[in-house]
TrEMBL record:
UniProt GO BP: acetyl-CoA metabolic process
UniProt entry keywords in alphabetical sequence: Acyltransferase, Transferase
Species whose genome carries this gene: Streptococcus halitosis
Superkingdom per UniProt: Bacteria
Lineage: Bacteria, Bacillati, Bacillota, Bacilli, Lactobacillales
Start and end residues of each Hydroxymethylglutaryl-coenzyme A synthase C-terminal domain: 254-358
Family per record: Belongs to the thiolase-like superfamily. HMG-CoA synthase family.
Listed GO MF terms: hydroxymethylglutaryl-CoA synthase activity
Domain Hydroxymethylglutaryl-coenzyme A synthase N-terminal positions: 19-172
Binding, (3S)-3-hydroxy-3-methylglutaryl-CoA: 37, 151, 250, 284
Protein name: Hydroxymethylglutaryl-CoA synthase
Transmembrane annotation, as ranges: none
Length: 398
């Protein structure tokens, strides 16, 4: 039997949801404030806007919002594992997943933990979830990719900042996309992007990181094709990790070989353009960027159908890369939000001055290690206080 068909059961993404912050910064305004040609952002990065998270919004609140948007009360009783992938963790010991588990009211007999490997972490979480469901077919696993990308005022990465969370319910007999048993991963011990414990912002070797992203793509793709006999003709679309969409476009061009017809190239390009729509309005969300691209593709592409295969390229600095694929399930459109673009346009736009105040505000604790917060009325979940160094979250009553 061909290796790529050796699957014991159908497992994949049953439902997928997303949440971002209520604030947005238009990069046209940022370019003017920084004395930069706006084309450097809109054409050089393929970015137009970035989401800005206030102090009361973090990876926990975003994760809870994304998850609650797709889960029923029944599913909260059936989930037996919660995994949060993040590189914006809020505690060195307690997992963000434990906070989310409590906020959502998921039944108590569930494992909850956090995974970290830069932007790759959610892909590892999906694989772990798949293995768990293979072992316990009645299980439902909530996998959440939640991050806030923050670089600093005037930093080279400033226009690629962002905030958001993608939640995925992983089950047997999924209703959105079934995984193929074809993961191929590669690890390289490099320093292209990192953030030591003592730093609130990352260190980036930008050109080197770009080179590693593209070289890892090429070498992992070659290994993937060799192991499973896939070619680009087998796939209706490819989704990329999206630190910024222009880098993914370079990746797409590397994968467009001479064997493809012009019609196939045009179709892949069309679907790529649909896959970056949300990222162009939100920016980089680290672990969630690949899956935000998948969501954007599914909710906006006009030429996809059940049975189509989609290949995904995951990359996390440091570095781990992976290719894997999935197949769209009959009726997948039922579980998507086709009105998301218009909802994103309803966010509150910030001036550059207000963005700098909101995004870079820091917690000021009193002598007891406590602080009270306000201004979170428009959030679904919020960090409402820190009491004796303990973060306290709450669902916001509307």
């Amino acid at each position: 039997m061909n290796e790529k068909t050796e699957v014991n059961m159908t497992i994949g993404i049953d439902k997928i949801g997303f949440a971002t912050s209520q604030y947005v910064l238009k990069l046209q305004d940022l370019a003017e404030a920084r004395g930069v040609d706006p084309d450097k952002y809109s054409k050089g990065l393929l970015l137009n806007e970035i989401s800005i998270a206030p102090l009361t919004e973090d990876v926990v609140t975003l994760a809870a919002s994304a998850s609650n948007s797709i889960l029923t009360d029944k599913e909260k009783e059936e989930i037996d594992m919660v995994i949060v992938a993040t590189e914006s963790g809020i505690d060195q010991s307690k997992a963000a997943a434990v906070f989310v588990h409590g906020l959502l009211g998921i039944q108590p007999f569930a494992r909850s933990f956090e995974i970290k490997e830069a932007c790759y972490g959610a892909t590892a979480a999906l694989h772990y979830a798949k293995l768990h469901v293979e072992n316990s077919p009645k299980s439902k696993v909530l996998v959440i990719a939640s991050d806030i990308a923050k670089y600093g005022v005037t930093a080279p990465g400033e226009p690629t900042q962002g905030a958001g969370s993608v939640a995925m319910l992983i089950t047997q007999n999924p209703r959105t996309m079934a995984f193929n048993n074809d993961n191929v991963a590669q690890t390289r011990d490099i320093m292209d992007f990192w953030r030591p414990n003592y730093s609130t912002t990352p260190y980036v070797n930008g050109l080197y990181s770009t080179q590693q992203y593209l070289d890892s793509l090429t070498t992992t793709w070659d290994e993937y094709k060799k192991r499973f006999d896939w070619t680009m003709n087998d796939f209706a679309a490819i989704c990329f990790h999206l630190p910024y969409p222009k880098l993914a476009l370079k990746g797409l061009r590397k994968m467009m070989d001479k064997t493809l017809s012009q019609e196939k190239k045009d179709s892949l390009q069309e679907n790529f353009d649909k896959s970056i729509l949300y990222s162009q309005m939100i920016g980089n969300i680290y672990t969630g960027s690949l899956f935000l691209g998948l969501l954007s593709l599914l909710e906006n592409a006009e030429n996809l159908k059940a049975g189509d295969k989609i290949v995904l390229y995951s990359y996390g600095s440091g570095a781990v890369s992976e290719f894997f694929s999935g197949e769209l399930v009959e009726g997948y459109e039922t579980y998507l939000d086709k009105d998301r673009l218009s909802k994103l346009k309803q966010r509150t736009a910030l001036s550059v001055e207000d963005y700098e105040k909101v995004f870079f505000e820091e917690v000021e604790l009193d002598e007891s290690g406590s602080a009270q917060f306000a201004g979170f009325e428009n959030q679904d979940y919020a960090l409402v206080e820190i009491l004796d160094h303990q973060r306290r979250y709450s669902k916001v009553e509307k």
